[in-house]
Design brief:
Order of helices and strands: HEHHEHHEHEHEHEEHEHEH
Bound molecules: ligand G3I
Strand order of the largest sheet: 1-2-3-4-5-6-8-9
Number of strands: 9
Oligomer: single chain
CATH class: Alpha Beta
Strand content: 15-25%
Mean pLDDT: 98
Shape: globular
Helix content: 25-40%
Radius of gyration: 19 Å
Number of domains: 1
Length: 312
């Protein structure tokens, strides 16, 4: 059948994958499939703070630039990931800073990074995983600055007025306390006029995940009613669990299919991104969570997405 990318483009939709740019140089098959099947890329790691600004004021853009060039050459959109996250921060960020110093650090980083790619990154994950699994804001070095969340969005808007600015999180796909907390947070930001354009649902799940059971469609709908664009941002489905391998591969395909259908059924859901695409390279390689196997052969999950994208 036709590549996922061709099917997505027919319906004005984006299908994406997280990328480690070093692999673009090392594995021709990796680069080939990526460009053939996807029209959106996101950096799995190389645009994180800890990768870009390892020491204060010193930036390493080589791998991020490599990804940007690849995307441009292959006419792919880019999601920037991520500006404010409590993980993968460089060691120097754990120093003790005054609120004014932290504000200067935040401003400098956002102006430098977002400014560098101004006009070339369609979507930025400005804030990632700020809400904890207890539904409260997580501890983070940024919190010395009151309103760091709001400030990050305002700085990003200034640095690139064209980029759509996202809040991104996991475990909030369905209705529940964490999703309620994120909903309340984003509603408050919108009410205060903070430049927030979209919300990303990561969807790192296992074979037990059922969008129907957690009322994912209803959940997306309430965020859509805030006027937000919706993306599925990091989907993968762990294959581990009971049953034969063939049964589990089918079940995995079904989970992908159902989530894609929920997204396609929501008019504001415009992009569906996987956290990688081949089981050869995944943060959870051992549980084979992606749609191509480790030899780059399409799995049942690939066919499921292809079928879902083909339906009117
Ligand atoms: O780059 C170093 C390398 O120099 C070193 O030799 C090697 C030894 O361990 O580590 C490398 O860094 C690793 C990095 O991935 C790049 O491969 C880190 O140890 C490892 O912790 C890091 O993991 C990433 C993780 O975020 C960090 O929390 C995963 O690849 C990445 O898939 C994952 O992505 C996150 C999203 O950003 C946010 N949502 C959840 C998602 C999954 O955890």
């Amino acid at each position: 059948g036709p590549p996922l990318r061709a099917l997505a483009e027919k319906r004005n939709f984006q299908i994406g994958a997280a990328v480690e740019p070093s692999l673009l140089l090392q594995e021709p098959e990796y680069a080939r499939i990526l460009a053939q099947e996807f029209n959106l890329v996101v950096a799995e790691n190389v645009m994180k703070w800890g990768a870009l600004q390892t020491s204060r004021g010193q930036y390493n853009f080589a791998l991020a630039d490599l990804l940007m060039d690849f995307a441009q050459k292959n006419r792919m959109a880019v999601r920037g990931h991520t500006l404010v996250w409590h993980q993968q921060l460089p060691r120097w960020m754990y120093g003790s800073f005054s609120p004014a110093e932290m504000e200067a650090i935040l401003r400098e980083h956002i102006q430098t990074v977002v400014g560098r790619y101004r006009g070339r990154i369609a979507y930025w994950d400005v804030v990632n995983e700020a809400v904890g699994d207890d539904a409260k804001l997580r501890p983070t070095p940024f919190e010395v600055l009151p309103d760091y969340l709001e400030k990050a969005f305002r700085l990003a808007r200034e640095a690139d007025p064209q980029a759509k600015l996202f809040y991104n999180d996991y475990g909030a796909e369905g209705l529940g306390p964490k999703s309620d907390a994120i909903y309340a947070l984003l509603k408050g930001l919108k009410e205060r006029g903070v430049p927030l354009d979209g919300v990303g649902f990561q969807v790192h799940v296992d074979l037990g995940f059922s969008p129907g059971a957690v009322r994912m469609a209803e959940n997306l709908e309430r965020f859509a009613r805030l006027g937000l664009e919706i993306h599925i941002t990091e989907m993968d489905v762990r294959l581990s669990g009971p049953g034969s391998r063939a049964e589990r591969l089918e079940k995995q395909a079904q989970v992908y299919r159902e989530v894609m259908r929920v997204c396609l059924g929501q008019p504001r859901c415009k992009a569906f991104t996987l956290w990688g695409f081949t089981d050869a390279h995944s943060w959870r390689s051992a549980s084979e969570p992606l749609i191509f196997d480790a030899d780059y052969k399409p799995k049942p999950a690939y066919l499921a997405l292809q079928q879902a994208l083909q339906r009117p």
